[in-house]
Amino acid sequence: MNIQHQYLVNFCFFFAIIFHSWSLHAKEYLILGSEQQGWKALIDSRNGTLQQYEQRINDVWEVIPFRKDTLAGPSWKGINLSPVAIQPNTFAAEVDGIRYMLQYLPMTDHLVVECKLTNLREKNYEPEYSRLILGIDSEMRTFPEWDTKFFPTLLRCEKNFTWGYFMSPRQIILAIGVEEPVACYTINYVYEGLLKWKWGHQVKTASLDLLHCLPLPERHPQNMYPLKPGETKNWNLHLGGIEELSDVKKTLSQWIQTPMIECDKYTITEKEKCRLLIHSRYPLKNLIIKSPNDVLTELPVDTLSENLYTAYFVPLGQNGIFQISATALNDKTAETNIYVRNSWSWYMKNARDFVAKNPPLFSNSCETFYGYYTAFLGARHFPDAVKDQMLEARFCRTLPLLIDTLSGIPKIEAAPDRIQNFSSLIGMLVDLWETTENLSYLEKAAQLGDYLCSEKIQSHDGAYRSKGTHYTAVIYPAKSMLELVRAEKKFIGQSKWKERYDRHKKSAYKAIDDLLMRLDDIQTEGDMTFEDGMITCSALQLALRGLLEKNTHKRKQYADAAIYLMNKHRCLEQLLIPDCRMRGATLRFWEALDIYFVPNQIMNSPHGWTAWKIYASYYLYLLTGKVYYLTDFMDTLGACAQIMDLNGNLRWGFVPDPYIKAQVCSERRDKRQDWYPVDSIVGEQYLDMISPWLRPDDEYSVCSFGKRGGSGDNTVQEIFKAMEECTLTSAYVVIDEKGNIQCWNCSAWKDQGVIHIVPDESMITGIHLNTSRKVKIETNLAGKHIRKNIFPGMHWLGNKPLLIE
């Protein structure tokens, strides 16, 4: 299905929904807004829940669907409201001495819901939480219906307000904002209770916990509990469509009268500075920065225009997270975090050392042995004879557990239908060959390539399949094949290798051409949904194929398809969050089982698989030259890198959910290697790795996923694989038409008509230049002095990354 056909199908589907929905019986519904105002809300006149919200966006009426089941909203959880006769658009109920109320207040361009809670008792009201279910339908079960659902892309509680937005794959945005403090938010996942797991890759909707007990993250209000006798609390919830992501902060700052901060970079080095833009309806009172050692400094602020301010942050000679708070004259305060990182080589070295200390285990899931990527890439750049030889020997000793090392055929106990195990193994073997130059490793990789090419795995349409299910976008088997092809190219003078090269290249290209035809009409592992990895893995392989294509027309086809998918994927990305720990990260919520966490759904943002998005944005930058992709992949990599703390400790991932009651896998204190669940409260924090201590008695056996030795937390190693490919040896410089310079992984400045570039590290061997004007540059790469004129366009100085040579 091509992109144009896809849009036609979607248009017809959306039109049918609109026609049906607004033909409902008028007496049962209250309609607010109008065509002239550009928005309309359909409200159930019996209980006050929104049935549907429409907004005119880019001159098209867009539908934001609301649920009709027990998670319909806005509604107080467990409370049935009724209309209040003497108050228009008002619904209320009194239950056990607590009065609940919702009143709809139409604004010029959006809807406000006033939420009111009154304690009529003579004692404190002390619930664990008082929850307002938003009811926006987020359940993305099937293609193409998921295009009409709205994911809770960003929810953020500040000290005295809350904001965020829901977004559909079609990039339609429903913004929300609450003028008053909200204690907490909750994502309504699909699961049943703490001990009764129900697998599912779905989010149903999201809720605001207007009151909530402690503990809560530090940034959240800490005084929203309890409600005293006779006390009433009000919250004004704003709902409305916004045309562009770039307008969300500006618009919400006006709706809820708060400052909103945006930075041009969220991860920087000690040599860089960061520019802040602050939208605020009221003038700023101050801008305070708190260093990692809690030293407070006030930043000077400049006024750019009405409601827009700017400031610059320069690191204070210290690495870590700097917290910046902007307070307006109405005392509303917004926060942002900026991370001052170490060198990329520091993270790679520490990641390799982690693998050496905690050697990978082979199982029927590649997630457990993903650390071999880091081991072999680390050995290439930072050789250490003792560590490297130990890891290589261990790999060779355990490899026969997965495959027949003579034929390359996967063994039954290694789950041969789980093809990502063996495509990943191809990539590891190629990396080991490049590090050691031992051709036997490339031989084994080629045999596995033949397995992927076989009729058992690759169907006539080109898709790699597992038991008939489309698996080309489960991790990235076609990218792994292209890594093999690039290695085999060195030997195409030999007929055996020429045949392998042609066969594997044809297989990878055929698989990617199938992705080009299908776009997001594909499948994934586990429960179907509009799944983060399914989309990013498809996009990254399409974009990589575009980079390798010489034909301009075909190159554009691959680029356009990748752009189409990544545009849709924005509803699953932290693109506006003002927090370096999550900026750019993807939103995943089904890896918690990897660390034995009950319930089995929490948000992981970032997580190791977030790195798939890094590849996609990186390749799209090299294809298009759009600086957005460069900034995005650098912010995303910066967020991912923070999974390793500044002491070199590696964690599993970051949990942005503010309050999750859970049982977390913990190490026993009696020195046994078994684990036990510990009742815990998890919120806006990193979770540690468990694989270092949850190891089997026999480490030279195939572990089972979910058992001792089968924990999947080494997905985190994908971050370092992406880091090595995209940034470890490469720097980036952008020069616009006015001569302004932006740079990453280097310093650059103009002096007497020459742009001087100094790489951040001596191991940088390539500089990517993207210039809109003719320039003269001077630099040193790998000990070689370079001085030359560069014409407009994109160019590599020195070495290109291996995969796109």
From TrEMBL:
Query: What's the domain of life for this entry?
Result: Bacteria
Q: Which InterPro entries match?
A: 6-hairpin_glycosidase_sf (IPR008928)
| Protein known as | Alpha-L-rhamnosidase six-hairpin glycosidase domain-containing protein
Species, as recorded: Coprobacter tertius
